[in-house]
Specification:
Elements (H helix, E strand, L loop, with lengths): L11 E9 L5 E10 L4 E5 L6 H9 L9 E4 L2 E2 L10 E4 L11 H11 L4 H14 L15 H14 L4 E5 L7 H18 L2 E6 L2 H7 L2 E6 L2 E6 L1 H6 L4 H6 L4 E8 L2 E4 L2 E4 L5 E8 L4 E4 L6 E10 L3 E7 L5 E7 L9 E6 L5 E2 L1
Parallel strand pairs: 3-8, 3-9, 6-7, 7-8
Antiparallel strand pairs: 1-2, 1-4, 4-5, 9-10, 11-12, 11-14, 12-13, 14-20, 15-19, 16-17, 16-19, 17-18
Helix pairs in contact: 2-3, 2-4, 3-4
Bound molecules: adenosine-5'-triphosphate.
Protein name: Putative ABC transporter
Organism: Azorhizobium caulinodans (strain ATCC 43989 / DSM 5975 / JCM 20966 / LMG 6465 / NBRC 14845 / NCIMB 13405 / ORS 571)
Subcellular location: Cell inner membrane
Amino acid sequence: MTEKQAPTGAAITLEACGKTFADGTRALEPVNLAITPGETIVLLGPSGCGKTTTLRIIAGLESPDRGGRVLFDGQDVTELPIEKRNVGMVFQSYALFPNMSVIENVAYGLRVRGVAKAERLARAREVLEMMRIDQLADRRIDQLSGGQRQRVALARALAVRPRVILLDEPLTALDAALREHLRAEIDGLLRRLAITAIYVTHDQAEALALGDRIVVMRHGAIAQIGSPRDIYFRPADEFVASFVGVTNRIEGAVRNGVFESAAGRVLLTGGDRDTATLAFRPETAELCAPAEGALRLRVDQVHFQGARQRVQLSAPDGSRIIIEAAAETELSLGQDVGVRLDPSRIAVV
Ligand SMILES: Nc1ncnc2c1ncn2[C@@H]1O[C@H](COP(=O)(O)OP(=O)(O)OP(=O)(O)O)[C@@H](O)[C@H]1O
């Protein structure tokens, strides 16, 4: 991540914004959220948790239930329609005009705003150059690849110089390699422009890479708001822990300051408990000889990933543990191994 410039984006505040649809579906519990100018906020959560509804309320495509308010830079915009809010939007499906050229698509928002032709084409070209796709200016949309289309969609959203850009799963339709590439590009662009951005995704890797802060949502409510590190290393509850990456869990009990389970014993600093769950991330554990580890487990599966390998282990009681190991470590299925844990990176819940 590079540092952002002095912000040019709007501060956005949601006050008690809930949403009940006409058919009675309660999509959103009253949500409070304060987004600072220039910040990139990621709304993360499983399908149906209310991410898109939140985004549409900010855009002005949906109004919140009575009592809810949306503020841009302190000004109440709750009653303002989308075209008066100066927001840019990018969707998963490109929503470009197929019969117009790239530059006409990018200039479209300026045309709607009554900007004269010469100026709107100049501004559209400027955005295309900034995104390094000016060589595509005269192509038709159906002559573009998926990645190019999504760049054009982003250029079109930025051309109107919005105070906030709203992105709803913009990379979902693209293949994995392209997704990662474009994600890095979007990150660089948002930071360079210091625009306020709200990005909806159900992909945790995308959220961790892009967000200044992440809002984890569940059943129409906010489960946790925090920096990517907060969310990853200090999840507020089981739901956040399991949604954001793989977490290993071992059931056991704590006696005399020692966590005891079928997989092994771990020295702890906390108090005793009859039932306890030890939780840790795959990359915080280390393989070692069976006699040297806190846990003793059996190798069930090995997935070679290039620089690393992901190893699935099992305990005598059947519980499964995933860890990451250096690719050079040779492992055979059924082999007994030890696992060393970093005491500062385990949680007992
Ligand atoms: N116009 C509508 N009428 C009735 N229910 C709706 C409407 N739009 C959305 N919903 C419901 O509101 C809930 C939240 O939907 P929303 O689209 O905000 O979820 P989401 O988190 O964006 O999900 P996804 O990741 O699948 O897009 C869902 O149960 C959905 O079915």
